[in-house]
Amino acid sequence: MYEHIVLLKLGPNVTIDEQEEAVKYAHAFKDTIPGIVDLSAGINVSEEVEHKQGYTLGIRVTFTNRQACRDYIQHPLHQNLLQRIGPLVEGIVVVDYPFA
């Protein structure tokens, strides 16, 4: 198994509706893109304000293996999401790791 975690820092002018739309779009990947075992995405509601560092959205995708993650990155639906929200993103953190 292979975990892919993404934290997005969206610009200050991004509306809650735009954030919710991005989360909704990400959720659609689960039943559409091959190799995805599990997926969660949501708006950061942490009360640990001192640790949020402006990161607004979180996405976690579990894949069958590393190659499935590589294929996902190139998949047209994922590329479409990047084009849609790319201009809104001010920062991004990605963490990938294999696990048993």
UniProtKB/TrEMBL annotation:
<feature type="domain" description="Stress-response A/B barrel">
    <location>
        <begin position="2"/>
        <end position="97"/>
    </location>
</feature>
<dbReference type="Pfam" id="PF07876">
    <property type="entry name" value="Dabb"/>
</dbReference>
<dbReference type="InterPro" id="IPR011008">
    <property type="entry name" value="Dimeric_a/b-barrel"/>
</dbReference>
<dbReference type="InterPro" id="IPR013097">
    <property type="entry name" value="Dabb"/>
</dbReference>
<dbReference type="InterPro" id="IPR044662">
    <property type="entry name" value="HS1/DABB1-like"/>
</dbReference>
<comment type="subunit">
    <text>Homodimer.</text>
</comment>
<protein>
    <submittedName>
        <fullName>Stress responsive alpha/beta barrel protein</fullName>
    </submittedName>
</protein>
